Amino acid sequence: MENDNTTSNVITNLITEFSKLPGIGPKSAQRLTYYMVKITKDQAFNLSKAIAELKEKILSCSECFNITEQSPCGICSSETRDTSIICVVEQPIDVIHIERTGVYNGLYHVLNGVISPINGIGPENLKINEFFQRIFSLQIKEVILATNPSMEGEVTSMYINNFLSEKNIKTSVLARGLPIGSDLEYTDDLTLVKALEGRKLLE
Fold it and tell me: DSSP labels for 64-133?
């Protein structure tokens, strides 16, 4: 955003930074910036401190690649989780939404993306090889492929399933109560519960 000489450089710079965030357009960036002008110094300090702590303390779990403050994460190190089943998701935020349903007690594996040739993203750019190594060390009996119902998500699931089908490992996908092209992030809890409980086996 260019400074038109009527706006402070400080304001302009913050609008520019907010505009870089996903889902934040120029108008939203302006609203956020002018909201920041109104808050107290303590509120601004607490916000900046929270962001700084996020970057300092959050790391990737060495086993499932979910975000965590310790590695292995609480799910991977838990003695109460069912280690015979593992749910494959695209992003860490998907773990949060599935956990919120309260119907799944297995492990997770976060791919950190999907296969997308048009964007130059292949299996080698994701945590797929790590997943293949992991399922054999854990003696997994069922893999739930919970990628988003998008073209890229389907391609990623097919790639993983093609490998697993030769290894005699039961593989299932979420029931198709999820709208095509949607993300787990925006799916309500009831729909996600039904998708998990009604998951179907892949041949």
Answer: T--EESSSS-HHHH-SSSEEEEEEEESSHHHHHHHHHHS---EEEEE-SS--BGGGTB-GGGTTHHHHHH
DSSP 8-class letter at 196 = H
pTM over 0.85: no
* Strand partners for 109: 88
Expressed as residue numbers, the domain containing 105 is 67-201
Residues 52 and 117 in one domain: no
Q: Are residues 23 and 118 in the same domain?
A: no
44 and 144 share one domain? no
pLDDT number for residue 197 = 67
Q: At what angle do helices 128-138 and 151-164 cross, to 10 degrees?
A: 40
| In-domain check, residue 4 | no
pLDDT digits (tens, 9 = 90+) for 29-53: 999 999 999 999 999 999 999 999 9
> For 99-111, how does the pLDDT look when each residue is reduced to its tens digit (9 = 90+)?
998 999 999 999 9
Q: Would you state the torsion angle of the CA atoms of residues 179, 181, 186, 187, taken in this order, to the nearest 10 degrees?
A: 30
Phi, psi dihedrals of residue 10, rounded to the nearest 5°: -65, -45
Count: domains in the chain? 2
Tens-place pLDDT, residues 53-110: 999 999 999 999 999 999 999 999 999 999 999 999 999 999 999 999 899 999 999 9
Q: Is the omega angle on the peptide bond into residue 72 within 30 degrees of 0, that is, cis?
A: yes
Q: Which is it for strands 82-89 and 106-110: parallel, antiparallel or unpaired?
A: parallel
